[in-house]
Design a protein that fits this description.
single chain; four-stranded antiparallel beta sheet; Outer membrane efflux proteins (OEP); about 450 residues; alpha+beta; elongated; disordered N terminus
């Protein structure tokens, strides 16, 4: 339903059209999308999520099939045949007035029977196999949850990549505007005879370079928009518009790290999958041990057999069978040894998974700290670069500065502004990465 609402929102945006866009920006729908809406659309449309759901459904059927040995088996058989067979009678046997027969038949044989069988005792093999199948089902559920969380992270990364590209395009547009303003200033001072023609030519080259930067920024926006649409399970050409962020950056606290590490061990699907892998391996050991015990089974059948249809002669059977495996070429011993090794490996893999999850939380928190500090540094850099550009312009207007000073200050300001918007969106991407590492993404 949420994905359907997102689709209506996109269609409404296309119908209305975006009339207030810049000269260099491509048209975008009027309805902006939040990160949560993009994630909801992806989980409703993405083939990746659908594939994970189908894998979980397959594992559920496998677990149900593992219950079959607990039920009796029933079989109905019908048969019709015509046969002849050679017989061997003892020497010296004779029939008065008749030769000794060597063949029986040809004759017809019609049969039908209903038979049933049930395992009474198997040393716990059925129980272990059912437990292993259920553990694998839970393991598939954890894997499906991991796929959904990874999909949410992929959408979030594409979302912030598009937002960052749009912000850098805005910076490029502002930089072009300043370059054109500086060109106009150089032309005015040239006409007044205050500066040589070379100042105008250098300003023209700077404006052309700024225009090229804007073209590349527009292309980066288009590519990023296509990647976000693809991550959402949509066509790459689907127009998307992003809602502006409402949460200001906040400094990460050390208490967040300890809380996230504890939460990750409880919430991360990778941990759950590893735990269920251990349980499945443990059940596998129990099932392999069951191969050493006797098997007790009951069987019953009732039917009819005759040389003509409808058969008249009754046939029936009731009995209990005890099967004791004496020697199987050491296969049971080797299978048990293998099952124990598989269990040890699953336990080792589970420990390694826990360590990897803790490392991911640590790395994500470190990245979050670095991105927040980058924002503070970039803000100070932008303030300094703006003041330097203003002073350079004022000096050039009164003839106290050179065009080189002005253009250098302009380039430094554009670089500082780009670093600032990049740091802001990298912080938000790092915040989402940190939430994913603790299993907190929707």
């Amino acid at each position: 339903m949420r994905a359907w609402m997102i689709g209506l929102m996109l269609m409404a945006g296309l119908a209305l059209g975006a009339q207030t866009v810049s000269e260099h920006a491509p048209s975008t729908p009027a309805a902006p999308l939040t990160l949560e809406q993009c994630i909801a659309a992806a989980q409703g449309e993405s083939p990746i999520e659908a594939s994970a759901a189908l894998s979980l459904e397959s594992a559920s059927h496998t677990a149900e099939a593992a219950k079959a040995p607990y039920y009796p088996s029933l079989a109905l058989s019908l048969g019709a045949s015509r046969w002849q067979r050679r017989i061997f009678l003892p020497n010296g046997l004779s029939f008065p007035g008749k030769p000794v027969p060597t063949l029986v038949g040809p004759t017809d044989d019609y049969t039908f029977a209903l038979s049933a069988a049930y395992t009474l005792f198997d040393g716990g093999e059925r129980k272990a196999q059912l437990g292993a199948a259920r553990a694998r089902q839970k393991m598939s559920g954890a894997e499906a949850a991991r796929v959904r969380q990874d999909l949410s992270l992929t959408v979030a990364q594409a979302y912030f990549a598009l937002a960052s590209a749009q912000a850098r395009r805005d910076v490029a547009a502002q930089s072009l505007k300043r370059s054109e303003d500086h060109l106009a200033l150089a032309q005015a001072r040239k006409e007044a005879g205050a500066v040589p023609l070379v100042d105008v030519k250098r300003a023209e080259a700077d404006a052309a370079d700024a225009r090229l930067t804007l073209v590349r920024a527009d292309d980066a926006v288009r590519v990023s928009r296509g990647r976000l649409a693809t991550a959402m399970g949509l066509n790459a050409s689907t127009p998307l518009n992003l809602a502006p962020p409402v949460d200001p950056p906040k400094a990460p606290e050390e208490s967040e790290l300890a809380r996230a590490q504890a939460t990750a061990l409880q919430n991360r699907p990778a941990i759950h999958a590893a735990e269920q892998g251990v349980e499945a391996a443990r059940r596998g050991v129990d099932a392999t041990r069951g191969a050493f015990s006797p098997k007790v089974s009951a069987a019953a059948s009732y039917g009819r057999e005759d040389a003509s249809w409808y058969p008249q002669d009754k046939t029936w059977l009731v009995g209990v069978t005890v099967s004791v495996p004496l020697f199987t070429g050491f296969s049971r011993v080797q299978n048990l040894a293998k099952a124990k090794v598989d269990l040890s490996k699953a336990e080792t893999d589970a420990r390694q998974t826990a360590l990897a999850v803790q490392e991911q939380v640590w790395d994500a928190f470190s990245g979050l700290q670095a991105s927040y500090e980058a924002i503070q540094t970039a803000e100070a850099l932008v303030a300094s670069a703006r003041e330097s550009e203003r002073l350079a312009r004022d000096r050039y207007e009164v003839g106290a500065g050179t065009i080189t000073d002005l253009l250098d200050a302009e380039t430094a300001l554009a670089k500082a502004e780009t670093s600032q918007v990049t740091a802001q969106w990298e912080y938000r991407a790092a915040r989402v990465q940190f939430r994913w590492s603790s299993g907190d993404l929707p």
